[in-house]
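Quick one: structure for this chain?
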Amino acid sequence: MLSSLLFILAVSSIANALPASANATPSNASYVLPQSDPDPSRRAAEIATDRAGYLYGPSLIGNSSFFPTGPLGDRRVAADVNLFIQNASYITLSIEKEEKPVADRITALGGFKNLSDYELLYKDQWKSSNPAGVAPGAFTNYTQDLFFSMERLSVGPFSTRRLHPRNDALPFQVDAATVKQLTGRSLEDLHKAGRLFFADHSYQAKYVTQPGRFAAACSAYFYIHPKTGDFLPLAVKTGVGSNLTYTPLDTPNDWLLAKMMFNNNDYFFGQIFHLANSHAVAEIVYLAALRTMSAKHPVRAFLDRVMYQAYAIRPVGSQILFNPGGYFDQGSAVTHDAVLDFVAQFYPTVAGLFQANYFTTSLQDRGLLNSPYGPPLKHFPFADDAGAIVSSIRKFVSAYVYSYYPTRAHLTADQETQNWVTEANTQAKVLDFPSAPLDHRTTLIDILTQIAYLTGVNHHVLNSNAPSQLAGTLPFHPSAFYQPIPATKGIEDL
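Got it. Here's what it folds into:
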């Protein structure tokens, strides 16, 4: 758990170092397209002021998108950090109040003697700071393979893809008799039938671990069972040391350890991917709008709403979370430099791409939805739940856009929106953004839906309450191991 007092002091120090902010929302809350504004001169002067005051500064926490600087940029960051402090104070004070009784209770009961004792960390605890508690089944189902595999289709849906039968080679081999016994087919047959899935965290082998802490760099196969249709794990390869390959036919302890090692890698991926995807992408698109649109513009009004407190997280994170010796270093196997390495690798290739990460597009491109080369997933909780939300967002955005742009001509005549798209593609350097000119209202609907998705659904499935409810719960999802990764199988005690 984070130290709440240090958290508040650290965040306060950021806010105190920055000037106060003013509210940029029009006082009369009247939004109008530029071609219909009765005072175009005043509007142009406002945009000129914003353009001079919101500047593109260096990225924070790795080399991703620019971060606001300049007189207005600094004021906006200060305002967001101050709001963040206000909203965070309740939860941080609650943690401060609740963490000592939890630790005292565990000590009084003799500490952790086996894996099931980790439930003492959560059961009937954290009533204020985590009132929903951990997810049902976290301590009753954690040894089940289906529980493990379905996390890839629910709380961690961004690291797994279906292997294409023709375009993808098999990343690694698994003992043929083992595969046959588990699935009734060969590995090659599963691949050809489009039933084989892959998650790759082998890149984490290059990350430096901290003294006395250890981590694997796992890659894993999952598959759709030919008879039951269940989505199940097939093998986990450690990627470090002896590079062992584990399967469900190993001893229960060995196989559970393999799943825990993979979860450690996948948890790192999810948390830092959310930073490079949800935060970095939405923030730069919004910064381009702040420099090109009047606060009276309806598109700017939409962005102002969904980007509430947007510029607080990266400054706070760079000061107290991903700094040398910060909270990340205190709890993780790898150093904070791994975060910077991850962002540098994944932002320009995967996480930072705007259109490629549209909800449906991303799932289809990874073969998880509407796949033409394999059977559908029997259950896909993320797609089911997020899909319903994204559909509702799109319906609202469509009504919003069509109300201000009753015809295509209204959009093409809107110079501020056109300037925004041009800015995003040029000075802001947004990756994979729709090109200028913006000729179709459906494209604008796509853009605004994606911003709402990134800052809501996408963000919250990876971060927000997800780690405390399931994705980061112990002992199944450790942030570090404190013994070396085994060089041989046959572990007796976890």
